[in-house]
Amino acid sequence: MTDSSAIDGFLAASLRALRANEEASWALDKEWAWQQVWERIEYHGIPFLLHSSASQLQTWPSDLLDRIAEEARLVILWETTHHKAVSEIVEALDTAGIACVIMKGTALAYSFHDEPATRRRGDTDLLIHPQDKQRAREIFERMGWYRHNDPHGLYYQEGWLHDTAGFFEHAIDLHWAPSDRPTLQQSLPIRDFFANKVAMPRFGTGAFRPNLALMVLHATINQKWHAEHGYASEAGFLTSPRRLIWSVDFDLLIRNMKGEDWQALYELCDQHTVGALVAEALRGVSQDLRTSVSEDTLERLARVPLDPALEAYLKDWDSLTHFWADLRKAQGVTEKARLLTMRAFPPRHHLLVKYPAAKRWPTALLQGRLLLETAQRMIRRARPQ
Predict the structure, then answer these.
(1) Engineered SS bond to 179: which of 37, 93, 107, 184, CB 3.0-4.6 Å?
(2) How far apart are CA 151 and CA 158, in angstroms?
């Protein structure tokens, strides 16, 4: 067992105890420094969750409890200022008649977590219709938000930033498709996100989220992608089958699902042949938190095998392979041409990230270098092994 997996197992057991309103005793050997445990707590996104049950952590190292408390204070300040900044944007979009759906972490925080700050996250994901992009951008700019210098390879989303009283730089990912990858959009069609959206009164005016079945499916696909391709955190780029805060999310979603929600989930999974993925995710949360999911439910979800093309896409690490698969799935000639142009001719600041030693090169020469290297990769892949 690796160091991180030993700590991860301890943290999962601690969460199970806390959620059962029991004492979570310190059960790690003395060889573990509290800083090592803190790194995993931060990775799993559970500092505030632990702090809210600090009275049940009496045997934990005092230095670790102090670090958790310090982080919790920052998290609650972040949550307060983030909510204010984002809710004003959501209300402005609603006033302008721009339909908007809040996705992922913020939707979970204000719909299912008792305290929104429990759901640690770095931004808010907003989904709009593609035809509303320009009007939404004008609203963002009018309200003091500015464009983020997005990394190369984003096609259906863009980042917006806002400074809040010198404390935090808040971020919104503005999406005009639920996933940035056309291959994954096949399992997450945008029409479904707007067709049965659910109001979020705790968040504010004009706030909506997807329905429960769609939230489970979306969370499953996100978790699978991060499990295969890693996860960016303050501690660097890390890999893990799942983060514990994601397991808490699934647990809360499952606890709120009724018969009609399960039926909607079955239908989505059958339609998009992703039931096996959802079953895998639910088995994971059951392992982490002992969440009760009947074997009949798991078998019903897993009875249709995962689409082999989707499975291969999720597991493949090669970005060029992903791009060609996405290009084939993109809708229409115009959209395919847009993706191809963005891939082949990225802006200068993207190229300088890739080629930092070539900052004196003209942009056209940098783009030519990228095209040549891409062609060489394609030739190598085409050669028989």
Answers:
(1) 184
(2) 9
At 133 the three-state DSSP class reads helix
Q: Tens digits of per-residue pLDDT, 4-53?
A: 888 999 999 999 999 999 999 998 887 788 999 999 999 999 999 999 99
CB 168 within 8 A of CB 78: yes
Q: What residues contact 287, with CB distance under 8 A and at least 6 apart?
A: none
| Burial class of 359 by CB neighbour count within 10 A (0 to 12, 13 to 18, 19+) | exposed
Helical H segments across the chain, by residue range: 3-19, 34-44, 47-51, 62-95, 104-109, 133-142, 182-185, 190-195, 212-229, 244-256, 259-272, 275-289, 295-302, 308-315, 319-329, 332-344, 348-354, 363-382
Residues 70-89 have pLDDT tens digits of: 999 999 999 999 999 999 99
If we measure between CA atoms, which residue out of 4, 81, 12, 95 comes closest to residue 46?
A: 12
pTM: 0.91
